[in-house]
Each structure stands twice: as structure tokens, then as C-alpha cells.
Amino acid sequence: MEQLDVIEKVTEPRQWVSSMVAVWKPEKQKIRICMDPKDLNNAIEREHYPMRTIEEVMARMPGAKVFSTLDAQCGYWQVKLDKESSALCTFNTPFGRYAYKRLPFGINTAGEIFQRLMTEMFEDMEGVEVIVDDILVWGTNEEQHNQRLERVLNRVRENNIKLKPEKCTFGAQEVKYMGHILTADGLKPDPKKVEAVNKMQKPTNKAELQTYLGMITYLGKFLPQLSTVTAPLRMLLEKTTEWIWMEEHDRSFEKLQEMVTEAPVLRYYDASKPVKLSVDASSCGIGAVLFQDECCPIAYASKAFTDTQKRYAQIEKELAAIMFGCEKFYQYLFGRTFEVETDHKPLEVIMKKPLAETPLRLQKMLLRLQKYNMTVKYKKGKELYVADALSRNFLKETDENENNDDVQVCAVMCLPIAPERLQEIRTETEKDPTLTAVKQFILQGWTNKSDTPDEAKQYWDYKSEMTIEDGLIFKGNKLVIPTTLRKMMLKKIHSSHQGIEKTKRFARDILFWPGMQAQITDRFQNAQYATHTRGRTERNP
Questions:
Q1: Over the stretch 450-471, which tens digit does the pLDDT of each residue have?
Q2: Which runs of E-coded beta strand occur in 293-394?
Q3: N or C: which end of the chain has fewer CB within 10 A?
Q4: Residue 394 half-sphere exposure, CB side, CA atoms within 13 Å?
């Protein structure tokens, strides 16, 4: 990064110094260095540069027939910072302090700054629209389009803007832009917006049908003749009715699918109105829906978990749902404030913490979410009708190439514990009845404290920090030690002869079990008492 002129080393005092976050990228065999600007973000005065709506863009494109789209690569790093801004973007590393010379990832106003600069760069050109790093070039015919495209590419070259070739489209009569499809005949919605609903599988039992009808009823105020269409399906839910799916149920289901994915249910996005993202994660998939006007859906999305993601702790699955929703609906959410609804209450706390204080398993996802200006709010699962239904009846496609193990590798590799000892801890963790119960709560979600078994209740207060990595349990970045190995660990800790405060600090940084600090203190005091007593005994005749 220093060689690329993105950062520079600094030695003079700086008023603002952020922490560094390192994320291992195994697919590239590289470490990604970022700053954690959460405190800085809270102090930044945002300029709230407006984003254009699809209606505004379309109004400026009369007679458009030919289109090209360009995507800027590492766009932020192409924006130079002045000295004052660079000083604010200083961060600590093990090798000293560095400051960004280019716009860093994670600054909450970065998208607005980049949008303004990109708009100013092309504002004197006809037939060009820019939304953040997506450039649209259009023409009423091929000749006009090509002339405009040539001017845009020259401007891109003059400003040293690098493009992603795989994300560029040239001279097409139909392109995706801002969640819609622009065509020579006008605007049409992107079928991807409703694919999650259109491809929902038919219910196979009463429980699945109950979940599906819960979603339909939630959207019911927009659906004409809803009770008439759902009548055959509701009959199946009666206690005295045997579950037999017939042609009339097929017709009812297909009609409902059609009704919830067409107007007046599915609305166009309005940038002047508040927006809300509702997400949910089941054991096997994710559901997300974007709302405006309280419960008017803008778009639906769902995704099956990969085999790796199915082994996530519940808090990781719920955070993955937020990340999926934000990135799926990026064009609607980036650069504006919005609310996220989740039924996982610990995420309200996690999202307010600095990155350095969050579990390593969550840091990569939290880092990707820093560019969004969101507020996470808890909502009971039974009230997340649509997201819950989508998460349980998800699109079957998964991205098996998506690598989700990088933070896990970091967490285990960074522990100053021998591999043989780690394997012993892993084995004893499997045998420990208390930690077995804790594992189940981590993977499936915690109950209320009053309903939690006594053996696991001592971990309840730390539930938002508990994760599982490679068969080991972590509280934040600290390894949880099973009961059978705690005496041995106390002996090892005490044998370091560093003094009680240094020993407690060392143990606190890498290990955890309830009451550990008090047990370390007791062991030191008992050892000191034994030494003192032995000394007096030896002096007696």
C-alpha cells in the first residue's frame, strides 16, 4: 500500500489515530489492511450529496436506444486526500503509524464524496449518468452512442480512472442499471428482484404452509380478493383436514405468486422516502426484503447457505443475512441512512462496538458493512413475516466459491498455543457437558436467561461474543478452556513467574473461563503463603 502511494508513514503527533484491522484473504494469499474508523465516523460531518433516482435518470434519456455501462476499479483509492483529511485517517500498526493519502474504505462519507467527484467529472457531457462508480453512456443511435462513449473513455483516461473489464458492457440494447433493466423500448423491472418469491417451492406440510401464508397475509393490504384466493390453502390448515395437496391448491399458490410480485404490491423505489431492510437467517438459508412506506416491498432476495455457512454460529448467520441484504440491494442503500430489522438482539450491541472489540469471526463481515450508514434494530422473529418465509424457502443456488474461512484461519493461527495443546483442548471441549450445551446455543440461538440451563447460564451474559472455530469455542478472541484442563492451565500460567498483574493480563488476552481472574489471584496468594510458611518452618530449630 505504501508502494502504491495509498498510505505513508507518519511520526508527528496526530489528534485522530484509529486501530488497524488485518483480514487474511486465502484466495489471494494476502492480508488486507484496513483501519477501523468507527469513532472517526461518529465525528465526521457528512455532506449528504444526493443520489439520482431511476426516474430522474430516465427523464434525462429521451429516445435512448443503445447503452454502455462502465464500472470503476478500486474507485476510492483514485481519490487523493488533502493534508488535513489525511491526518484524520491515521492508524496504528505494529510497525508504527501510517496515514491514508487516498480515500480509505470504511469512511461513512466516502460514497458521497466519490459520487460528487464522479458527477463533477462528467457533468459537462451529454448522454452520461453516474451513480457512485457505475457510469452509464447512452445514445439515440449507434453513431451518437459511440461518439459519447469515446469522449467518456478519454475522460476516464485523463483522470487515470481504472475500469473493471468484466463488469463493463458496450453497445447493448438492454443493460442492468440501478436495479432495473434499461431497454430500447423503455424501463422494465429486474426479474432478479422477485426471483426469490417466484422460485419459492410449494409447501410440503402444514408448518411450511403456515409460514408461507404468514408472509402473504402481511402483504395482504395490497392484494385484492386475498381471502378468496387463499381459501383452499387455509382449508388445509384446519386440524380435521388431512394434508393432501391437489390441483386447486396449485392454482391458489400460483395465483398468489403472481399477485405478490406485481403492482400494486411491488413498488418502484423512491429516494425521497425512508427505506427499511428486513432480514432473517434460518438453519439453511437467508431471506431479505426491502421496504418503503412501512410495508411496501421494493425487492425480495434469498440465498441458500453453503456447507461452510451452515456450520456458522447463529450470530454469524444473522450478520451474514444483513451483509447479504445490504450487498444485494446496494444500489438502493449505499449513500443513505436506513434501518435494518433483525430478530437477533445481540447484533444491536455488536454493531455499536469498535471492530477491535468484536470476535474475529465477525470482523470481515463488519468491515464490509462499514460503508453503509445503517441502524440495526431488534424485532421479534414472528413479526418478520416476509424475511422469515424467504429464509426458510430460499433459492437453491449457492456460491460455493465464496470463501468464508479466512477469519477462522486467522483466529486459530494467531493463538500462542502449540498445535498439540490445541488438539487436546478441542478433544476435551467435545467431552465437556457444559460447553456442549453452550455450543448448541451458539449454533441455534440463545434462549432467555431464565430458560437457559444452569450449566450454560454462566455464559449467557457473553452470548453476543461467543463463536465456534474449528471445534474450539471463543469468547471474542479468547479461547474458552474446558473444565478438565483449567487446573493445568493455571499451573502453566503461574509457572511463567511474571508477577500477578502481568500474568492476569496475559491470560486475559488469550484465554477465558468463568472466574478465571479470581482463580489466578487465589493461586498466587496461596503460593506466596506456602512459600512464606515454608521459610518460617525451615528457620525453626
A1: 888 888 899 988 887 888 877 8
A2: 296-304, 337-342, 373-378
A3: C
A4: 24
